[in-house]
């Protein structure tokens, strides 16, 4: 008879925090996190040094997953950089149209955490920088004038799509953003 290994306290805390911090925001209570993970308070401090460390690690983990989603959408669109950039907004249309979409977890964390020294802010900055670089790579392949400005515009449309998708769930902002991207790219 095989034995089934259950995830350890660290993984259970990460899974619970990733779900609850997205559903309820990063200010979700410690007791709710501990209860959902079925771990003792001591585990939180042993593995993450406290809730701040857990939230930062959850954002780091989510960022890796989200960046992979962007990379996959870009790669699946073929070799044409225009089509690859438009594919980002096709993917975002699916994301913001999902019934469980609650907005951009990185923007939510930045808005909820007033202390600029909170370790989550470093993670959200790194995430945005990595996404910016991913988009910039495709923009540079287009040989457009002012590629840094174009990339900044695309980032604004990505973040605006996610914010609008949360605030007005039936609006389909990614479709409008995609149309704007077509104009920006010429």
UniProtKB/TrEMBL annotation:
Name of the protein in its database record: TetR family transcriptional regulator
Keywords: DNA-binding, Transcription, Transcription regulation
Lineage: Bacteria, Bacillati, Actinomycetota, Actinomycetes, Micromonosporales
DNA-binding region: 29-48
Residues in HTH tetR-type domain copies: 7-66
Organism listed in the record: Phytohabitans flavus
InterPro entries: Homeodomain-like_sf, HTH_TetR, Tet_transcr_reg_TetR-rel_C_sf
PROSITE patterns membership: HTH_TETR_2
Top-level division of the source organism's lineage: Bacteria
Annotated Pfam families: TetR_N
């Amino acid at each position: 008879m095989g034995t089934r290994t259950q995830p350890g306290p660290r993984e259970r805390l990460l899974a619970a925090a990733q779900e609850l911090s997205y559903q309820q925001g990063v200010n979700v209570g410690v007791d709710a996190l501990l209860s959902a993970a079925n771990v003792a308070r001591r585990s939180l401090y042993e593995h993450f040094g406290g809730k701040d460390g857990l939230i930062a690690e959850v954002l780091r983990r989510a960022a890796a997953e989200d960046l992979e989603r962007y990379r996959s959408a870009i790669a699946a669109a073929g070799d044409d950089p225009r089509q690859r950039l438009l594919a980002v907004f096709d993917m975002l249309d699916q994301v913001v149209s999902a019934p469980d979409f609650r907005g951009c977890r990185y923007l939510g964390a930045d808005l909820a955490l007033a202390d600029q020294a909170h370790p989550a802010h470093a993670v959200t900055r790194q995430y945005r920088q990595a996404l910016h670089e991913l988009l910039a790579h495709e923009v540079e392949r287009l040989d457009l004038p002012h590629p840094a400005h174009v990339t900044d515009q695309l980032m604004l449309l990505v973040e605006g799509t996610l914010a609008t998708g949360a605030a007005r769930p039936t609006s389909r902002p990614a479709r409008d953003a995609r149309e704007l991207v077509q104009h920006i790219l010429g």
